[in-house]
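Hey team,

Sharing the General stress protein run so nobody has to redo it. Sequence (135 residues) first:
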Amino acid sequence: MKTNITTATHVHTVNTAAEAREQVERHVSQGYTRDQLFVLAHDKDRSERLTEQTATEQIGLEEEGLGTAVANIFRSRGDKLRAKMRSVGIGADEAERLEQMLDQDKIIVIAWSGKSYESDDDYDPYINYYPPFLV
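Structure output:
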């Protein structure tokens, strides 16, 4: 059986907007649709600019679910980012590490499989991280 790459979630940590655009275009060429692609930065304005520049989507109500979306109204930026990452299948430990990377002014590019995760205990154990996390 042939595996379709777009059924897996890929998470890239990059340094610049140009690298983010490059990753987005690579994922589009692999068959991901732009509504499966998310670009995150710690600064909200930067995140919105990157989303606009790459013609990608923001992780919103459809991916998060109503409960997380409402709770995010009252959360800090870091807590919101971790919750958004969790909603697309990134585990708690990985979301924490990625949020620390965002604190260091990195950019996160997510090519999402399309499966939502609403439970705090539910995550996708098959996500590919680039560069890989070393434990």
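The chain is about 45% helix and 15% strand.

Ping me if you want the raw files.
A.
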